[in-house]
Amino acid sequence: MLKGIKSLLIGLLTVGKHLFKRPVTLEYPEKRPEVPENYRGKIVVDGCIKCMNCTKVCPSGAIKIEDNNFTIDLEKCIFCGNCTYYCPVKAIKCTNDFELATPDKSDLKLTYDIGGGKDERID
Length: 123
Description:
This protein is an alpha+beta fold. It has a single domain (35-121), classed as Alpha-Beta Plaits (2-Layer Sandwich), CATH 3.30.70. It has three helices and six strands, in the order αβαββαβββ. The chain has helices spanning 2-19, 53-57, 82-86, and strands at 43-45, 63-66, 69-73, 92-94, 109-113, 120-121. The strands form two sheets. A four-stranded antiparallel beta sheet has the order 2-3-5-6, with no helix packed on it. It has a two-stranded antiparallel ribbon with strand order 1-4. It is elongated. The termini are far apart.
């Protein structure tokens, strides 16, 4: 019985300790979290010169460059940042966009037209 009372007091002390602290969770989506400056979110492409470095360093094989299309499959991408790091012209950038959930898997394939001039997203 003494052991039960001791564990009850320990539990009450733990609750009391956390009772007056600020909550850790956010009321998402009303309150949006602040992401760090170097956060690796959704990938965008602008100014690609088709050097193919990104396809060579991508460990998951998520990047394909065919003809004038740069395609990145976010379903395969592990957001390691190798493509942004090894791009010689810094054409590939990671944004702070973390809301990538979608009911349609085809939304996770990003295709950019890198034919000339300004790169544009096709889909």
